[in-house]
Design brief:
Blueprint lengths: L3 E8 L2 H11 L8 E8 L1 H9 L5 E5 H6 L4 E3 L5 E3 L5 E4 L12 E4 L5 H9 L5 E4 L2 H9 L5 E4 L3 H4 L6 E5 H9 L3 E9 L4 H20 L5 H7 L5 H11 L2 H4 L2 H17 L12
Helix pairs in contact: 1-8, 1-9, 4-7
């Protein structure tokens, strides 16, 4: 019997379909929660969260910073780690963003990828936002000079004959000495505490289920992934699902504080501090 309906929205990327597969297939106890689940592109998730459409959602930590007065971060479900950052790619060899006549494609205004480009390459080029899956094709067609590449493209960009300018995650690690917090799961602060607690338990158990039997999630992962090769899907999971996905811990909380400090230093952040449940 259910006693609380929750609108949950997650991304279509493999780390989320891996982590939430057992929840979506109801292979774990929903603990009295009636989940309505949407799978969306990260920018759609960010926009929906700003519009107040979701109770719980995966979101870029950039967006979460701007919504810190309205949401609380759940300990489980984050994408945070070393070697996980977006790549700054170029259409041409030996080029770098230095000119406002150049065009850089970013995967959404409130994505952490866009925030990192703004932090490390401020006011160097024109910026255009587009769906992440359009970035590499447009670079290959030379309709843009640079692109901030996320998700599966991190593993497939060389096949597209593109060129790496910089790993923005490595730059973050050099500057902060912390893992990069890309995105996390947030809940509306006005939800009852005991309901948030149950949601957190279900999500952690879903993660634990897939970690114990990784192949159980492959069918769902294939259904939503841009890249259908199983080895690439599992490579994605190995990179983005780790100990901090299970629980942010003190390291994860410290990384979120660093992100807030840097964003505020360039006028991108919010006066409120992100809270972890």
């Amino acid at each position: 019997m259910t006693d609380h309906q929750i609108h949950l929205a997650i991304s279509t990327c493999p780390n989320d379909t891996f982590a939430f597969n057992a929840l979506m297939q109801q292979k774990v106890d929903w603990r009295g929660i009636d989940f309505k689940i949407d799978l969306l592109d990260i920018q759609q998730l960010n926009q929906g969260l700003f519009a107040g459409r979701f109770d719980v959602a995966k979101t870029s930590f950039h967006a979460a910073l701007l919504l810190a007065d309205r949401v609380i971060v759940l300990p489980s479900g984050s994408a945070l780690g070393y070697g996980v950052g977006p790549l700054l790619l170029a259409a041409q060899h030996n080029t770098a963003p230095t000119d406002q006549a150049q065009l850089t494609l970013c995967p959404g205004e409130h994505t952490t990828a866009t925030l990192l480009f703004a932090l490390f390459h401020p006011q160097t080029t024109r910026i255009e936002q587009c769906v992440f899956s359009e970035i590499m094709p447009r670079l290959k067609a030379t309709t843009a000079d640079f692109g901030v590449c996320i998700h599966e493209g991190r593993f497939t960009w060389q096949q597209q004959d593109l060129f790496r300018v910089e790993d923005l995650g490595e730059r973050w690690e050099e500057v902060t000495n912390t893992p990069l917090p890309l995105g996390g799961l947030v809940a509306r602060q006005e939800l009852p505490t005991e309901v948030i607690s149950r949601i957190q338990q279900v999500i952690r158990e879903s993660l634990e289920y897939s970690l114990a039997d990784p192949n159980s999630a492959l069918k769902t992962m294939r259904q939503y992934a841009q890249e259908m090769d199983d080895s690439v899907l599992m490579q994605h999971v190995e990179l983005y699902v780790n100990e901090w996905t299970l629980d942010l811990g003190e390291t994860g909380r410290g990384a979120l504080n660093k992100l807030s400090q840097l964003a505020n230093s360039v006028g991108i952040g919010c006066e409120h501090t992100l809270q972890v449940f």
